[in-house]
Specification:
The protein has helices at residues 2-21, 72-81, 103-106, 120-125, 130-139, 158-168, and strands at residues 27-32, 35-42, 45-50, 53-58, 61-63, 69-71, 90-93, 153-155. The chain is an alpha+beta fold and 171 residues long. Strands 1-2-3-4 form a four-stranded antiparallel β-sheet, with helices on one face. Strands 5-6 form a two-stranded antiparallel sheet. A two-stranded antiparallel sheet has the order 7-8.
């Protein structure tokens, strides 16, 4: 029975971490029976300490240079699978690739493959801003406004663009 209570408590701690990542107050204390947990978020890093140990989780959102917040997990889905959990992503021109996933051309880590390195640092060094990254995705234009060779164009929501940029910042 004691092991079951520990498992239930661990599941509750995970739920608390999820709520904190969604923007709930940054520090909370939860008590249940004899178990006690403290959850603290500092600089986007969430830590839950309980009698069973410590669980740490990174924040799942990022802010673009324009101040918009993006969901890293949805950005990863767009990058890896070419699919959004929010809106439909539509191919609108340029050179079509298999599923529309960025990783198909730019590699799973964004450091290049058929297409160039599109890690956020490499893009910034090349003169891309967040707005220019969005333009590259939606219009196939580089940082100077010239056509990108072989770059497909996609119609996607501004939220999905922000999510994708948030994910690029993790690469």
């Amino acid at each position: 029975m004691k092991r079951l209570n520990t498992t239930v408590f661990a599941l509750i701690a995970i739920c608390v971490l999820s709520l904190l990542a969604a923007g709930c107050p940054s520090t909370s204390t939860t008590s249940r029976s004899r178990a006690r947990a403290t959850t603290t978020t500092v600089a986007g890093q969430t830590t839950t300490t309980s009698s069973g140990g410590t669980v740490t989780s990174a924040s799942s959102s990022s802010t673009t240079s324009s101040g918009a917040t993006g969901s890293v997990s949805n950005g990863r889905d767009i990058f890896v699978n070419g699919k959004s959990s929010h809106d439909k992503i539509t191919f609108t021109g340029g050179k079509a690739r298999s599923s529309g996933a960025c990783a198909n051309c730019h590699g799973a880590n964004g450091k290049g493959g058929i297409g160039p390195n599109i890690t956020y640092g490499a893009l910034k060094e090349s003169g891309f801003t967040d707005a220019r990254i969005k333009r590259a995705i939606t219009s196939g234009l580089d940082e100077k406004g010239d056509p990108l060779q072989g770059m497909p164009h996609y119609k996607m929501s501004n939220q999905d663009l922000n999510d994708l940029i948030a994910y690029l910042k993790t690469l």
